[in-house]
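job 3f2a | input accepted
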Amino acid sequence: MWKVKIIGAGSIGNHLAYASRQMGWTVDMCDVDAEALRRTKEDIFPSRYGAWDDTITLYAADEAPHEGYDLVVVGTPPDSHVPLAHQAVASGTRAVLIEKPACPPDLAGAQALFDEAAEAKCRVFVGYNHTVSKSAAEVSRTLRAGTLGAMETLDVEFREYWGGIFAAHPWLDGPADSYLGYWQRGGGAAGEHSHAINLWQAMARDAGAGRVREVAATLKYVRDGAIDYDSICAAQFRTENDLVGRAVQDVITKPTRKWARAQCESGFVEWICDGEAGQDSVVLADEALQTETMPFPKTRPDDFLAEVEHILAAVEDPAIDSPLALHYGLDTMLVVAATHLSAQNQCSVAIDYARGYVPEALELLK
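job 3f2a | predicted structure (366 res):
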């Protein structure tokens, strides 16, 4: 039975606490804000799951134990992720799960965290949990099998009005009240909805297309003297093996559209998240455009249960190439950083992975 520490008693912390308890694990939660702990016990957890779980122990952040955990979850704002993950790795835990995005676009401390985790032999994951859903696993199997031929282009969209985020965090009046309203802190469409970029990268890997090597992006920034975020991030990519495609993320679209389509030589595979209430779908089409639709029923808690089940399997079997692995999450942050650099300089940006997870890995192509 694992012992889990969850840092951050917000929405994600509650989701992962419940998922961990479903696994039969013991859970300690901590937060710097006493009000957040009260909300967790009296409001968020019981309203979502029916009742508070008295086996969960709540701590003020400065009073929580630091050692003796199998998994440490960092569920705080992105600009605190790297320092807290450093501490978690140093504590001797077997695994660390960082909520996405892994860090802000400045990449501060990212390479050092990667090096320290490798040295400590600590498995670090980033919470792009859509990649480990049953529906995404079906897409992955299809692409790896190559039954539709080579991938010719790839499109992924995570277009979602962020009112749902604020509904889940009613103590926030809007984006100015948290990191969400500040792209430099990891908010805005490029950071908050970076699931699309991450899924694009995962599907490109599955098809043997390699990593993103060139980014050209257009972002729409919202600035009023206080907030400073991108409401739309539209990015085009070219990979190491010359696959060309795009990812679009925004915080304005109603109703939500979370969708991906890999167009291949002999058909296509399409992924639809929450296309109908309570299910994802995968659509396969052959060369004659005869389609097969596979439904994948799920609930919101299922997303996080699949995540912790995957982490357990990956820690128990180091041979598993986890799509949640830290290096993939940091590959995503290189691309997120490149989208901002591209938009602000109105040119394409090349990524040199040999330089590591540092700003110097990005080069303007003028």
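job 3f2a | The chain has two domains: 3-99, 130-297+326-365.
job 3f2a | closed
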